[in-house]
Write a structure and sequence with these properties.
The structure holds 2 protein chains of 2 kinds. Chain A is of the alpha+beta class. Chain A is built from 3 helices and 9 strands, in the order ββββαβαββββα. In chain A, strands 1-9-8-4-5-6-2-3 form an 8-stranded mixed beta sheet, covered by helices on one side. In chain B, strand 6 (280-281) and strand 7 (289-290) form a beta hairpin.
């Protein structure tokens, strides 16, 4: 004999109809994503080769608002936020905003170049390799630092960057305003 | 008055009619003789003119305008044996059945779809649920009366089977219209009920906490388990509770599961000599079992103990898990690798060996293979060892069965761990290690003596769904101890299924293989449980071929069983068997989980492996179909709650760049698999075809490469990735969530 746990439906045969609500599954950033605003601090130097082996310095972009974005081709979250970054860049590049995408890939240059071409990354991509980068703390990917027109780090992120907050900060810095947590 | 009421009166009024007629001894086969199911073959020489489920039987019923007597059971079912012996072997009962009915036998393990339809009808109509399930159907297969076990003559408040047959035959002749309209009404209600309406709702984490509360409320503190006797192991409960602990660190969730598992391991439900678990305990102390051993139980229970071991690192859990895996490898494995279905409870008592003809079930006794006399143990194990063994396992000279529902255990002992190792050591003034060694020797001697006893009947058919569960168990055993023997058992079974039960050209599974024959198109359980096994097997073997097969099977599963309108999975494919009254979605996780629950979790895991959004969407829609049921009746769906937990969590993606067999890779895998990390996926990217397969699904994996030539782990959680590392200590810290 067995367990009979089912209720008798013959007696309850007039079941109630209820709408099945299937909510759209929104990918939302979770507790591991960190978003910090800082007392403005001068950014460390950053001198790296780009995809055509030309040396690029952070100092070259003094006077602009710069997002130094550490990423890699294997980093799925980086790939997921790429469309947002591209959109913000395109919208604000003429106002003096630039993104320096620093790859920490171990892969050969040509594979990174192929990835960049395929994904049509419009801003400079610099190659750092997987070793430590002096003056820049990269605890994981994506890690990003937002630098104001005076060359000071004012905000940083680890993990997914809320595109609305990022754009808000970029806009404020372009106008010469301060950024702070809302 | 309903048919049911009329029949109850009929049964009561005819108490005095004939009982057991002399058993027909002529061994003349009926229409079951060419079947392969061990259960059907057990009835092939009954005087009842049994037919298998099929058009031949149904056409005859229509032509002769007779009702169908449908009897459903399985080969290790105690009361099925009893009814076979008492009623189906009886000449008078057989002639009643043959004259007035078309008798059809179904093996529920071969055809759970048929069983599900009629079990739902029988429980819904209030006829009771269980096996054997006996129903009377109109020639259109609509049930109008049923029940479980019937004694041959009225007994224990149940109507006698012979009288019932006479009464039903008479009703069919004199009141057909009423009977048919009852059947029609019931079929309508069945259709309505099985639509799974009104149970949907949004997916909320609150459902998980609520389920924990529901388990807490019914938890039995002293002996573990949930609710009183009879006690089933219910592996799905542990699946949920251990994950609840992993998610919330709620100690009570772990304690409820761990204590229950400890008590089960101590009980008579656990085979202390040969390993493995019997089906359920008739008492609340896990002491007096029904002795059949089912593959689906042992597979899932092994996983419970493996997971409890990963959480607690208690050796006891590891020992029990190994006991199950070694038992299945030894006694339940086909030479080519598939796993058999079950071992019966009953066997010929050793003292009758050579004295009687062991044909049919007549002389077999429940548990005869497993129970012991006090003196026999002293004699077999040796006086010193025997005494210690008997103390430890609660053996008494007059027998130790405190309850004995069928009067089968008089003077016999059902082993249970009455005294702990420490107590036993103290009592006999020995060290614990020495005590363990003595007990191991005694166990070994008993095992050898027992091997000479007549064995219980083995149901050696090979079912895909249950093999899927067992593949998971061996794969998880292989993961836990990095044990190649367990991995080999899992892979060999998977290859067996691929060769024998899979049609690659059509991408379709069959359900059952036995004796060279594959039969019955796969049902949703076959696809879902096998896919789960293959996902676990991939994470143990890191061979992408298993993932590729899992993806293909999932595509077939979605095509055949998924309900695109409301979500959820039907048990059967459209056109599977047009004679089934309804297409049912299993709506509860019972001793076996529901296909929808297992499929939902598989789809979520696979969506991370493959990036397939459609997989994730189907999982979410399936969970949403049962959203309110999970919230309001959580104990009916613990396995679906596991899928909900996964859906709401942020699974870790652990990708190791390195060769599968390299020591550094293995060291990292051992770190992953020694921990209980339910919400994760693991991949290994070496060189060659496996890498290409995984990259074809997730192109970004191309950049996952070793660091400076060394194996490296890439771990991402929740939209953030750790820096890749080749350092085992850093990797361990990442797994433990201790990175800054």
């Amino acid at each position: 004999m067995t367990r009979g746990s089912r209720r008798s439906w013959l007696r309850e045969a007039g079941g109630v109809l209820a709408a099945v609500l299937v909510g759209a599954w929104l990918f939302s950033p979770g507790p591991r994503t960190q978003d910090h605003s800082h007392e403005p601090l001068p950014a460390a130097e950053l001198t790296l080769a780009d995809l055509s082996d030309k040396t690029v310095r952070l100092a070259d972009f003094k006077g602009r608002v710069v997002l130094v974005d550490f990423w890699a081709t294997w980093c799925h979250p980086c790939l997921q936020e790429l469309p947002d970054l591209k959109a913000i860049y395109r919208k604000h590049e003429r106002e003096g905003f630039i993104i320096l995408a620093v790859s920490i890939d171990e892969s050969p240059r040509k594979e990174i170049a192929a990835f960049v071409a395929e994904n049509e990354v419009p801003y400079p991509v610099l190659l750092a390799g997987s070793g430590p980068i002096k003056g820049w703390r990269v605890r994981g990917l994506p890690t990003a630092y937002l630098i104001d027109r005076e060359g000071r780090v004012v905000r940083s992120w680890f993990g997914y960057k809320d595109p609305r907050k990022l754009e808000e900060s970029v806009r404020a810095l372009l106008k010469g305003e301060h950024v702070h947590d809302s | 008055m309903t048919v049911e009421g009329r029949l109850r009166l009929a049964g009561a009024a005819l108490l005095t009619a004939a009982g057991l007629a002399s058993a027909a001894t002529a061994r003349k086969p009926n229409h079951l003789r060419n079947e392969k199911s061990p259960y059907l073959l057990q009835h092939a020489y009954n005087p009842v003119d049994w037919r298998p489920w099929g058009e031949e039987a149904f056409a005859k019923a229509r032509k002769e305008s007779k009702p169908i007597f449908l009897s459903i059971g399985y080969s290790t079912c105690h009361w099925c044996h009893v009814m076979e012996r008492e009623s189906f072997s009886d000449a008078k009962i057989a002639s009643l059945l043959n004259e007035h009915f078309i008798a059809v036998k179904v093996d529920r393990e071969e055809r759970p779809d048929i069983d599900k339809v009629y079990m739902t009808a029988a429980t819904g109509a209030g006829w009771g649920g269980g096996w054997p399930l006996n129903l009377w159907l109109t020639p259109e297969l609509k049930p109008f009366f049923g029940g479980t076990y019937f004694p041959p003559d009225a007994r224990w408040g149940r109507p006698g089977f012979a009288q019932l047959l006479e009464r039903i035959a008479e009703l069919w002749k004199t009141r057909r219209e009423g009977v048919e309209s009852d059947a029609q009404r019931l079929a309508g209600a069945l259709e309505k009920y099985t639509k799974v309406e009104g149970r949907g709702g949004p997916l909320e984490p609150a459902a998980l906490d609520n389920a924990f509360k529901a388990f807490s409320a019914s938890y039995e503190t002293s002996r573990g388990g949930f609710g009183g006797a009879p006690k089933f192991p219910m592996p799905v409960n542990h699946d949920f509770l251990l994950r609840h602990y992993a998610r919330t660190k709620e100690k009570k969730a772990l304690e409820m599961s761990a204590r229950t598992l400890r008590e089960m391991a101590k009980g008579g439900i656990h085979d202390h000599v040969g390993g493995g678990f019997h089906r359920y305990s008739t008492d609340a102390r896990w002491h007096i079992p029904h002795f059949e051993k089912m593959l689906y139980d042992n597979a899932q229970i092994a996983v419970n103990y493996l997971e409890a071991y990963r959480v607690t690192k208690e050796d006891e859990f590891a020992v029990v898990a190994r006991g199950i895996l070694d038992y299945v490898r030894r006694d339940m494995t086909h030479p080519e690798g598939g796993f058999y279905s079950a071992e019966d409870a009953d066997s010929l008592p050793p003292e009758l060996l050579g004295k009687v003809d062991d044909v049919g079930h007549e002389h077999r006794k429940e548990g005869a293979f497993y129970v012991w006399d006090h003196a026999e143990i002293i004699e077999t194990a040796g006086p010193g060892e025997g005494e210690i063994f008997n103390y430890r396992y609660g053996v008494r000279s007059g027998g130790n069965a405190e309850s004995d529902p069928q009067g089968e255990f008089e003077g016999k002992n059902i082993l249970f761990a009455a005294h702990a190792i420490g107590e036993t050591a103290k009592r006999f003034r020995k060290t614990e290690d020495r005590t363990r060694a003595i007990l191991a020797t005694a166990r070994q001697r008993l095992f050898q003596a027992r091997a000479k006893r007549p064995r219980p009947h083995l149901d050696d058919k090979i079912l895909v769904s249950w093999n899927g569960l067992m593949i998971s168990a061996f794969a998880q055993g292989a993961q836990t101890w990095d044990d190649p023997a367990y991995l080999e058992a899992a892979e060999k079974a998977a290859r067996f299924l691929r060769e024998r039960l899979y049609d690659a050209k059509r991408n379709r599974l069959y359900r059952r293989w036995r004796d060279g024959e594959r039969k019955v198109p796969g049902i949703a359980d076959d696809y879902a449980f096998l896919v789960q096994g293959l996902l676990d097997l991939y994470e143990a073997s890191l061979r992408a071929e298993w993932l590729e097969w899992a993806v293909r099977l999932t595509e077939a599963q979605n095509e055949l069983f998924y309900d695109p309108k409301d979500g959820g999975f039907y048990m059967t494919a459209p056109g599977h068997d047009k004679r089934l009254l309804v297409r049912i979605k299993e709506d509860s996780d019972n001793v076996e989980p529901a296909a929808s629950s297992v499929a939902a979790l598989n789809l979520l895991r696979l969506s991370w492996f493959t990036g397939r959004r459609d997989f994730r969407e189907k999982a979410e829609k399936t969970l949403a179909l049962f959203g309110a049921q999970m919230r309001d009746q959580p104990r009916s769906l613990p396995r679906m709650l596991v899928a909900l937990d996964y859906a709401l969590s942020k699974p870790r993606q652990i990708v190791i760049a390195g060769e599968r067999a390299a020591p550094e890779t293995r060291a990292m895998l051992r770190e992953v698999h020694s921990r209980f990390l339910p919400n994760k996926i693991v991949m290994v990217l070496g060189r060659g075809r496996d890498r290409e397969t995984l990259q074809s699904w997730l192109p970004f994996l191309k950049g996952v490469v070793p660091l400076k030539g060394r194996t490296a782990a890439y771990v991402c959680v929740d939209y953030a990735c750790e820096l890749p590392t080749s350092d085992l200590e850093i990797f361990k810290a990442i797994l433990d969530g201790e990175r800054p």
